[in-house]
Amino acid sequence: MNELITQINDAVWGYILIGALVACGLWFTWKTRGVQFRMIGEMFRLLTDSATSSIEELADPNFKRKHISSFQAFAVSVATRVGTGNLAGVASAIAIGGPGAVFWMWVIALIGSATAFVESTLAQLFKLHYKDSFIGGPAYYIQRGLHQRWMAVLFAILITLQFGLSNNSIQANTICGAMQEAFGWSPLWVGALLAAMALFIVFGGIQRIANVSAVLVPVMAIGYVILAVIIIAMNITEIPHVMKVIVLDAFGIEKVAGGAIGATIMNGVKRGLFSNEAGEGSAPNVAATASVTHPVKQGLIQALGVFTDTLLVCSCTAFIILISGLYEVPELNGIMLTQSALQSEVGAAGPIFIAIAIFLFAFSSIIGNYYYGEANIRFITPNPTIMTVYRILSGGVMVVFGAMASFELVWNIVDFFMAFLTACNLIAIVILGKYAFRLLDDYREQKRHGIKEPTFHRSQLPEIEHELECWE
User: Which of 67, 82, 221, 256 fits 291 for a cystine, CB–CB 3.0-4.6 Å?
Assistant: First the structure.
C-alpha cells in the first residue's frame, strides 16, 4: 500500500503539480507587479494592526465579537507553517534530493508568496459572519465566487483529510521521534500525552487556538533562529562553500547526494509547499478570521508568513545540516538528521534542544491544523455531533496513530492528499484572482492618496456585491 501511494505521488508531483505551482506563482507575481517584493515594508507595518470593530458593534455597544487581529491570524497560520516541515521536512528533502533541494524550496517560496497573497485576500473578501467571529477560506470563495457547491465540498473534504487528520499524524510522528532520540521515551506514551493536550485546546475554539499560537510561535521561532545564527556565525567561513554546493546541486552540475535533478526539484518543491503552504489553500482559512479594514491587509500578512517560514526558518535548518556534512550519511533522515547535525555543532545538548523545539513547533501546528478542518466541516454541516467526532479524531486518534506509524507512511499519506488539495485550490484562485488584483490596485491607490489605513466597501465590486456579507 505504501509503495502504491509513493508511485501515485511521484506521478502527480513529477508531471503535473510542480509545473502548475510555478506557473501560478509567476502569473500572480506578474499580475500583482511583484507584490511580495514591492510591499514588504507594508507587510511588517500591518503586523501591529489591531482588530477593527464591526458595523454591529458600532451600532450596538452591547454587541461584541471575539475579534482576531492581523497578528493573531498571522501567528496561527505561521504555527501551521513553522513546524515539522522546517526541521524534519527540510532534512528529508536534502537527504533524498540532495542539497540542491534547498534552492528549489527558496524558488517556490519567492514566487509562491504571490500565490499566498491572492488566496488569503480572496478568503477575506468572501468571509462570512459566524456567531461571534468570522469564518472563511477556499471552500467559501469557491461556492460564493464560482458558485460550484460540489467543488467547494470537495475542497472542504480534502483539507479536512489533509490537515485535520493526516497532517497531524506527521506532527506527532516527528515529536515522538525527536523525544525518543533525545530521551528514549516511548512513542506511545508521548503520543497519548500529546493527544490529551491537543484535545484540551481544540475544544476551546479559534480564540483559544489564536491565544496559544500568539505566544508559542514567536518564542519557538525566535529561539530557533537565534541558535541557528550563532551556529552559522561560528562557521561563517563555510557559508560560501555551502551556497556553492546548493546552487551547483540544484542544476545537477555537481550532484553531491540524492538522485537526478528531477528528484532534487520534486523534493525541494514538495517539502517547500508542505512547509510554507503557499497555494495549498490552508492559510486562507485562518486569514479569513482576522478583523481588518481591507482584504488586502491580510493577503500581505500571509505573504510575509511564507517568507518567514521558508526563507528564514527552513534556511536555518538547511545551513545547520549542510555545515555538518551529515546529509551524506544514508542512515540519517528526517528529524534524526537535524538532531545529529545540531549535535555535531553544539554537543550533546543539540538533540535535547531540537526535541524541545520540535515539540513547540509541531504541537502548535497540531492545534492550527485542527482549526482548518473545523472551519471546513462547518462549511459542509453544522451538526455538532460530527464536529465532536472530528475533534476526537484530529486531536486524539490521528495523533496517536502518527506516534506509532512509520516515517515513510505518514509522509506518503500527506503528499497524496496535499497534491489533490493544492490542485483544487489553484484552479479556483486562477479564476477568481481578478478580484484580488482589483483590490490590490484599490489599496495602492488609497495609499498613494495618503490614506494610512485603506478601507473597502462591497459596493466597490458591484458584480459580486450580493456575495460579500462582511463588508458593509
Answer: 67
Tell the burial category of 222 from Cβ atoms under 10 Å away from its Cβ (0-12, 13-18, 19+): exposed
Determine the Cα–Cα distance for residues 285 and 375; give it in Å rounded to an integer.
7
Quote the Cα angle for 248-28-136, to 5°: 120
Per-residue exposure over 295-330, b if at least 16 CB sit within 10 Å of its own CB, e if not: bbbbbbbbbbbbbbbbbbbbbbbbbbbbbbebbeee
Which DSSP symbol is given to 337?
H
Dihedral angle at the C-alpha atoms of 225, 268, 22, 261, nearest 10 degrees? 140
Grouping H, G, I as helix, E, B as strand and the rest as coil, residue 131 is coil
Backbone torsion region of residue 284, taken as left when φ is above 0, otherwise alpha when ψ lies between -120 and 50, otherwise beta: alpha
In angstroms, the CA 353 to CA 341 distance is 12
Give the Cα separation of 92 and 462 in Å (integer): 48
* DSSP state letter for 308: I
Q: Are strands 128-130 and 133-135 parallel, antiparallel or unpaired?
A: antiparallel
Where are the extended beta strands (E) located within 217-264? none
Task: Give how far Cα 259 sits from Cα of 214, 224, 266, Å.
Answer: 40, 30, 11
Encode pLDDT of 195-249 as tens digits: 887 777 666 655 555 566 566 666 766 777 788 888 888 888 888 988 998 888 8
Yes or no: say if 366 and 395 are a contact pair by the CB < 8 Å rule.
Answer: yes
The tens digit of pLDDT for each residue in 101-151 reads 888 888 888 888 999 999 999 999 999 987 777 888 999 999 999 999 999
Looking at residue 127, the DSSP 8-state letter turns out to be -
- Rounded to 5 degrees, φ, ψ at 51 are -65, 145
Burial degree of 177 (CB within 10 A; 0-12, 13-18, 19+):
buried
Question: What nine digits make up the cell of 2?
Answer: 505504501
C-alpha distances in angstroms, 42 versus 295, 444, 445, 466?
14, 11, 14, 30
Do 279 and 273 form a contact (C-beta atoms < 8 A)?
A: yes
Quick one: residue 69, left, alpha or beta (phi over 0 = left, psi -120 to 50 = alpha)?
Answer: beta
In whole angstroms, what is the distance from residue 83 CA to residue 273 CA? Answer: 13
Backbone phi, psi, residue 49, to 5°: -65, 135
DSSP 383: -
Q: Which residues pair with 134 in a beta bridge?
A: 129
**Interatomic CA distance for residues 110 and 35, integer angstroms:** 11
